[in-house]
């Protein structure tokens, strides 16, 4: 159980929400009886880069184009398609996505906030947006990050986490 319907804050204390049936077969959790609520989740992660690569991202001088604009589109697309890539994840109506990049000295931090109104949360969408956005940054800057052997000794994605999850009645 790793999805939004696991025995976390969204579960009713008496509810037995699980992704497997009595015989151990995978199944999608039935959220049909849950009330619609306004929900928000925020995830954050970081990609470590060479300082000169971060400078090139800031100056929009990466050969492939505008790194942050491309990664923003990738993050939003990932949010919208989370249900297609995470098994047993419900397709939910996304009402808003905010994508914020914070370039530092040797890293770029990405924060993705997702909002929905429905029966289940949106933390998986926020996580998918964050990881995909960071992957797009990597893809856009990989030629600048490769060493002489074609490796990425200073590049890494780290600290991806959900930093906020809220819900409120409508």
UniProtKB/TrEMBL annotation:
CDD domains per record:
MoaC_A
Q: Where is this region: Disordered?
A: 1-39
GO: which molecular function terms? cyclic pyranopterin monophosphate synthase activity
Enzyme Commission number, as recorded: 4.6.1.17
Name of the coding gene: moaC
Q: In which pathway does it act?
A: Cofactor biosynthesis; molybdopterin biosynthesis
Query: InterPro entries per the record?
Result: Mo_CF_biosynth-C_arc, MoaC, MoaC_sf, Mopterin_CF_biosynth-C_dom
Q: Which residues cross the membrane?
A: none
The record lists the lineage as: Archaea, Methanobacteriati, Methanobacteriota, Stenosarchaea group, Halobacteria
Role: Catalyzes the conversion of (8S)-3',8-cyclo-7,8-dihydroguanosine 5'-triphosphate to cyclic pyranopterin monophosphate (cPMP).
Report the family membership. Answer: Belongs to the MoaC family.
Question: Subunit arrangement?
Answer: Homohexamer; trimer of dimers.
**What NCBIfam families is this protein classified in?**
moaC, PRK12343.1
Show the catalytic activity: (8S)-3',8-cyclo-7,8-dihydroguanosine 5'-triphosphate = cyclic pyranopterin phosphate + diphosphate
Q: Which GO terms describe its biological process?
A: Mo-molybdopterin cofactor biosynthetic process
Q: What is this protein called?
A: Probable cyclic pyranopterin monophosphate synthase
| Positions annotated as active site in the UniProt record | 139
Residue positions binding substrate:
88-90, 124-125
Keywords, sorted A to Z: Lyase, Molybdenum cofactor biosynthesis
Could you tell me which residue ranges the Molybdopterin cofactor biosynthesis C (MoaC) domain spans?
28-167
């Amino acid at each position: 159980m790793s999805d939004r319907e696991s025995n976390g804050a969204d579960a009713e204390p008496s509810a037995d929400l699980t992704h497997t049936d009595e015989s151990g077969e995978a199944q999608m959790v039935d959220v049909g009886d849950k009330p619609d609520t306004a929900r928000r989740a925020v995830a954050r992660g970081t990609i470590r880069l060479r300082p000169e690569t971060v400078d090139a991202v800031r100056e929009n001088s990466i050969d492939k184009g505008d790194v942050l604009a491309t990664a923003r589109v990738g993050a939003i697309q990932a949010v919208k398609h989370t249900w297609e890539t995470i098994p047993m994840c419900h397709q939910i109506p996304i009402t808003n996505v905010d994508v914020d990049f914070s370039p530092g000295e040797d890293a770029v931090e990405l924060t993705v906030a997702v909002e929905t109104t429905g029966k289940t949360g949106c933390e998986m969408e926020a996580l998918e947006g964050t990881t995909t956005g960071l992957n797009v940054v990597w893809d856009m800057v990989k030629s600048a990050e490769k060493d002489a052997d074609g490796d990425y000794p200073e590049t890494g994605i780290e600290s991806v986490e959900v930093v906020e999850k809220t819900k409120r009645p409508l």
